[in-house]
């Protein structure tokens, strides 16, 4: 759990180092007439929960490609994977991963962007990837057995030569890079926007669910919207992120009526909620966070005979009771947005439940007080 927390904190800090595009992208070529692409999402629970998608990269003999698992990330924009050059000293550096590093020199469709253009992706947890912008063919398995794989040519990505991820300890590590889906020209969504009408959708299940239903990342013009859909406009942001206007927060169905000064720090570059699929926890401005915790404390104090507040020394607000009821009588949280739109977060999405050796249920709030000064923001992953 602690590793998950550290990673989520690092994600919040990451927004102070967002990448910006320094070149214009050509439109990618799409080899199928299908209007929707459905890509299975895989939960990687070890060492940290991460949503992965399988991507075929390159063109080899018999039109084969190399398959890699990339982190689906709406909170960043760059696509990158480790290339074979990371094995060549002195500049090269690789982290351990399950699949062979991408053999770009052997791919028939690999193109180095000219003039040679380097990139540097750095993240708050110490991870980084440095290398060269390149172009390649990306392939996705079709969810229909009667349809061929879906190919996109000339996708601009980072061919990583110097890479590091602290959580990679051995060659069972699944993560081979990142598929950035943020709001910038180098993101995968932007590069294929003409083919998909700028639309994509996904729905995650909790990572503690046994035998979960399949999850899919979908792209395309005929994605079916939910019943009675409500539309939110993205706000302009200094960062290349999906930023929506959140106006209030509620606890257990009761609206807190927070002011803008409570919701967002005065000197913050972000005045809204950032949707980031790469974060496992939510980070709130300290005044908004404190208001939620105060309301939670009051709720559990009124049930003092059943619940006890725990001080676990991890910076989280946690409560305990004798094991047995799971999420019964546990409150949820609601996010309120402009235009009367609200998102009800069920108790399972509000608290993380664990069983301690004393046979107690420990419920820890899945929100954190933001610690990053000017980067204070509400971020939900």
Structure description:
- This protein is mostly beta strands.
- It folds into 2 domains: 22-220, Beta Barrel (Cathepsin D, subunit A, domain 1), CATH 2.40.70; 242-380, Beta Barrel (Cathepsin D, subunit A, domain 1), CATH 2.40.70.
- The chain is built from 6 helices and 25 strands.
- It has helices at residues 2-14, 188-191, 193-196, 260-263, 286-301, 347-350, and strands at residues 29-30, 36-44, 50-57, 66-73, 79-82, 111-112, 118-122, 128-140, 150-164, 175-180, 200-202, 215-220, 242-244, 246-251, 254-255, 273-275, 282-284, 308-310, 318-322, 333-337, 342-345, 351-355, 360-365, 367-369, 378-380.
- The strands form 5 sheets. It has a 6-stranded mixed β-barrel with strand order 3-4-10-5-9-8. A 4-stranded antiparallel β-sheet has the order 15-14-20-21.
- It is globular.
- Residues 1-7, 10-27 and 372-381 have low confidence and may be disordered.
- Low-confidence segments, given as residue ranges, are 1-7, 10-27, 372-381
Largest sheet, described in full?
A: 6 strands, mixed, barrel
- Helical fraction equals 10-25%
What is the CATH class name of the largest domain? Mainly Beta
CATH homology group of the largest domain:
Acid Proteases
- The N- to C-terminal Cα distance equals 16 Å
> What is the CATH third-level topology name of the largest domain?
Cathepsin D, subunit A, domain 1
Task: Tell me the strand order in the biggest sheet.
Answer: 3-4-10-5-9-8
Q: How confident overall, as mean pLDDT?
A: 84
* β-strand number: 25
Our Rg estimate from Cα atoms comes to 22 Å
Tell me the number of helical segments per DSSP (H or I, 4 or more residues long): 6
Strand proportion: 25-35%
Label the CATH architecture of the largest domain: Beta Barrel
List the domain count as a whole number. 2
Which structural class matches the secondary elements?
A: mainly beta
Shape label: globular
């Amino acid at each position: 759990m602690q590793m998950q927390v550290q990673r989520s904190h690092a994600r919040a800090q990451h927004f102070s180092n967002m990448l910006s595009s320094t070149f214009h992208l050509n439109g990618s070529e799409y080899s199928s007439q299908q209007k929707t692409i459905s890509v299975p999402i895989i939960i990687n629970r070890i060492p940290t929960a991460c949503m992965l998608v399988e991507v075929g990269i390159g063109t080899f003999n018999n039109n084969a490609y190399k398959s890699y698992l990339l982190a689906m990330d709406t909170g960043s924009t760059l696509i990158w994977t480790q290339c074979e050059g990371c094995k060549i000293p002195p500049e090269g550096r690789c982290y351990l991963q399950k699949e062979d590093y991408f053999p770009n020199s052997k791919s028939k469709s690999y193109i180095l962007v000219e003039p040679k253009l380097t990139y540097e992706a750095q993240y708050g947890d110490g991870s980084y990837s440095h290398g060269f912008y390149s172009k390649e063919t990306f392939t996705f398995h079709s969810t229909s057995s009667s349809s061929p794989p879906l190919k996109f040519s000339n996708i601009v990505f980072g061919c990583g030569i110097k890479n590091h991820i602290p959580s990679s300890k051995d060659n069972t590590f699944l993560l081979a890079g990142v598929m950035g889906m943020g709001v910038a020209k180098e993101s995968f969504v932007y590069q294929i926007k003409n083919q998909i009408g700028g639309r994509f959708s996904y729905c995650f299940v909790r990572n503690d669910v046994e035998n979960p239903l399949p999850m899919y990342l979908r792209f395309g013009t005929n994605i079916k919207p939910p019943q009675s859909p409500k539309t939110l406009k993205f706000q302009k942001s200094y960062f290349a992120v999906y930023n929506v206007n959140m106006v209030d927060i509620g606890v257990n169905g009761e609206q807190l009526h927070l002011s803008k000064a409570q919701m967002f720090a005065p000197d913050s570059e972000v005045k809204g909620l950032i949707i980031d699929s790469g974060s496992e926890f939510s980070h709130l401005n300290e005044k908004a966070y404190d208001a939620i915790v105060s309301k939670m404390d009051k709720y559990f104090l009124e049930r003092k005979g059943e619940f006890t507040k725990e001080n676990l020394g991890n910076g989280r607000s946690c409560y305990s009771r004798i094991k047995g009821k799971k999420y019964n009588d546990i409150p949820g949280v609601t996010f309120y947005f402009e235009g009367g739109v609200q998102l009800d977060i069920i108790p399972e999405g509000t608290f993380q439940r664990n069983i301690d050796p004393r046979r107690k249920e420990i419920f820890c709030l899945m929100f954190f007080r933001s610690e990053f000064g000017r980067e204070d923001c509400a971020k939900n992953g």
